[in-house]
TrEMBL record, chain A:
Keywords, sorted A to Z: ATP-binding, Cell membrane, Membrane, Nucleotide-binding, Transport
Pfam families, A to Z: ABC_tran, oligo_HPY
Topology term for the membrane: Peripheral membrane protein
Name recorded for this polypeptide: ABC transporter ATP-binding protein
Record has Ion transport as a keyword: no
InterPro entries: AAA+_ATPase, ABC_Ni/Peptide_Import, ABC_transporter-like_ATP-bd, ABC_transporter-like_CS, Oligopep_ABC_C, P-loop_NTPase
GO MF term list: ATP binding; ATP hydrolysis activity
Annotated signal sequence range: none
Source organism of the structure: Oceanobacillus halophilus
A GO CC annotation given for this chain: plasma membrane
From TrEMBL, chain B:
Name of the protein described by the UniProt record: ABC transporter permease
Main location: membrane
A Pfam family per the record: BPD_transp_1
CDD domains: TM_PBP2
Compartments in which it is found: Cell membrane
Membrane topology field: Multi-pass membrane protein
Regions that span the bilayer: 7-29, 72-96, 108-128, 134-151, 182-203, 236-258
BP terms from Gene Ontology: transmembrane transport
Domain ABC transmembrane type-1: 69-258
InterPro entries: BP-dependent_transpt_permease, MetI-like, MetI-like_sf
Length: 328, 269
């Protein structure tokens, strides 16, 4: 088996709030292999973005990784010195942000913001940096790259801005890109274009991508494997086709059932009742128990172990643990 | 964005540039030697020879006012620079790093703010003796807190923005983020503070010199001229009037400039 580019082992992240410490992520473990696109899905507030921030070490000031390991090619990032980590950020790991308008500095030209990455991580001359920047801008679909090089973010449309953000993430040819809902802030036609761009990148660039989204349609088109997160835990993971055709966890089932579809025309769309418990509302047991239609007695007391379904498909649900079926 | 006309802003610019031109001319040319005394022609009323009259030593008031504008500008620029540089470093570190760095710096600034500015300056001058340099240092220190606070609040605001996180994700270090990414965004609120502090520094200098604590003879100073003119307020009212108008004009000019800058910013936001 290949060695993973990134592997996270039993990571816990907690927030220090005024009235105590609250666990936001619990027991997160997953790996990303070379040339693989891993999707992370879940409702808002499930810890998708927090996971990506932990990988890059840009957690909010009041959050911290309590224990666990984030290994980039066998180096534990959490034990790394700040300076070494800076070297890795941008050159080996990079990030695409959700809202291009806020992820770009309004007072610097877009060309500068892209070539800045090269300035930090390479010894290229100013001229070569500019050339590389312009060819990268063309690669992400900005045809008038030479003209756009000296423009400011506000002069570009949302879709163009997001292309710039993607160019920033790609320019240093990182091994892994974390895309945190890169299409959420864009309108539908631009979304389609950006997704098309991702598909091309996947094809030609051979970069691994962690793709965070709450849109199953997007996940289905882009990802190889998918992690389903709920209330700070990974509840199910497996290949995209496997999970979409054969979801096991009641939460995943609910999510997939609530995708609008032209075959469901006229019917009322399925929704999962209730909402994600906030940090302070989380108790022991399975966090989904309160909203689950197939809840067992044990669900409120104990969080289930991981059960291997088939190949890489695993699920954390009491329904699939041995002996659970009899008590049903 | 449509260009909004801000009348106070243009009046401010007009006054400040007029005085700036006067100051520049006075370096090369004044109608009379500002220090040449003429005991036969003391406290003369305005005439063609002396448009603003003469003072109690028979010196030409116009030339002295022109010469005094140099002092005003030198003091304003140097004091604001000192306050701006130190205040920026303190405020930027406090706002960017937060935590205990912020606590220490903020308490230090609070302690400075507890002293009324002019008293602080008087105290410093009492310790370090009078003179142009010490006046500048005292006024510079006086303006540190306001710059530090403004810089701190804009750094705290911009630190949370995604583009700052994005630049961390690009691999940028603290120094680069502070100077390259946040500083340009923090300039416009600071600009207003610069204009206000400038007029504040000139006013304080005049106040100090009026008390005899600021600029010492023979360096000309509007504040000291005002003090010298005071005994002759009935016999030579133009002396007090002209000096007072000069101070007022410069302070008014910078205040209008600051107001206009702030209006422009508010419209942008």
């Amino acid at each position: 088996m290949q060695t993973p580019i990134l592997s996270i082992e039993n990571m816990d992240v907690s927030f220090q709030l005024s009235d105590g410490k609250y666990k936001a992520l619990e027991d997160i473990s997953f790996s990303v292999f070379p040339d693989e696109v891993v999707g992370i899905v879940g409702e808002s507030g499930c810890g998708k973005s927090l996971t990506s921030q932990a990988i890059l070490g840009i957690l909010p000031k009041n959050a911290q990784v309590d224990h666990g390991e984030i290994a980039y090619k066998n180096n534990n990032l959490l034990e790394m010195k700040e300076n070494d980590w800076q070297e890795i950020r941008g050159s080996a790991l990079s990030m695409i942000f959700q809202e291009p308008m806020t992820a770009l500095n309004p007072l610097l030209t877009v060309g500068k913001q892209i070539s800045e990455v090269l300035k930090k991580h390479t010894n290229l001359s100013k001229k070569t940096r500019k050339q590389k920047t312009i060819s990268m801008m063309k690669e992400v679909g900005l045809s008038r790259a030479e003209e756009l090089y000296n423009s400011y973010p506000h002069q570009l449309s949302g879709g163009m801005q997001q292309r710039i953000v993607i160019a920033i993430a790609l320019i240093a040819e990182p091994d892994l890109i974390i895309a945190d809902e890169p299409t959420t802030a864009l309108d539908v036609t631009i979304q389609a274009q950006i997704l098309e761009l991702f598909r091309k990148l996947k094809q030609y660039r051979k970069t691994s991508i962690i793709f965070i989204s709450h849109d199953w349609g997007v996940i289905r088109h882009i990802c190889d494997r998918v992690l389903v997160m709920y209330a700070g835990r990974i509840v199910e993971q497996g290949s995209v086709t496997e999970i979409i055709s054969n979801p096991k966890h009641p939460y995943t089932k609910g999510l997939i059932q609530s995708i609008p579809d032209h075959q469901k025309k006229g019917e009322e769309l399925y929704t999962i009742a209730g909402k994600v418990p906030s940090l302070k509302e989380r108790k022991g047991g399975c966090p989904f128990a309160d909203r689950c239609s197939s809840r067992l007695d044990i669900c409120k007391q104990q969080f289930p172990e991981s059960v291997v379904m088939e190949g890489t498909h695993t699920v954390k649900c009491h329904l699939y643990l041995k002996g659970a079926v009899e008590t049903l | 964005m449509a260009k909004e006309k801000s009348i106070p802003f243009y009046i401010g610019i007009g006054i400040v540039s007029f005085l700036l031109v006067v100051m520049l001319i006075s370096i090369f040319y004044t109608p009379h030697d500002p220090n040449a005394m003429d005991s036969t022609n003391r406290l003369a009323a305005p005439s063609l020879e002396h448009p603003f009259g003469t003072d109690n030593f028979g010196r030409d008031i116009l030339s002295r006012v022109m010469e005094g504008s140099q002092t005003a500008f030198i003091i304003g620029i140097s004091a604001v620079s000192i306050g701006l540089i130190i205040g920026f470093i303190l405020g930027a570190s406090a706002g960017y790093f937060g935590g205990w760095v912020d606590e220490i710096i903020s308490r230090f600034i609070d302690a400075m703010l507890a002293f009324p500015g002019i008293l602080l300056a008087i105290m410093l001058i009492a310790v370090f003796s009078t003179g142009m340099t010490n006046t500048i240092i005292a006024l510079g220190i006086m303006s540190i807190p306001s710059f530090a606070r403004i810089t701190r609040s804009s750094f705290m605001q911009y630190k949370k923005y995604d583009f700052v996180k994005a630049s961390i994700a690009k691999g940028a270090g603290s120094i680069r983020i502070i100077f390259h990414h946040i500083l340009p965004n923090a300039i416009s609120p600071t600009l207003v503070a610069v204009a206000l502090s400038f007029s504040g520094a000139i006013l304080s200098e005049s106040g100090l010199s009026y008390l005899g604590l600021g600029v010492q003879p023979p360096d000309p100073s509007w504040g000291r001229m005002l003090k010298e003119a005071q005994p002759y307020i009935t016999s030579a009212p133009w002396y007090v009037f002209i000096t007072g108008v000069a101070i007022t004009l410069l302070v008014l000019g910078f205040n209008l400039l600051a107001d206009g800058l702030r209006d422009k910013q508010d419209k942008k936001a």
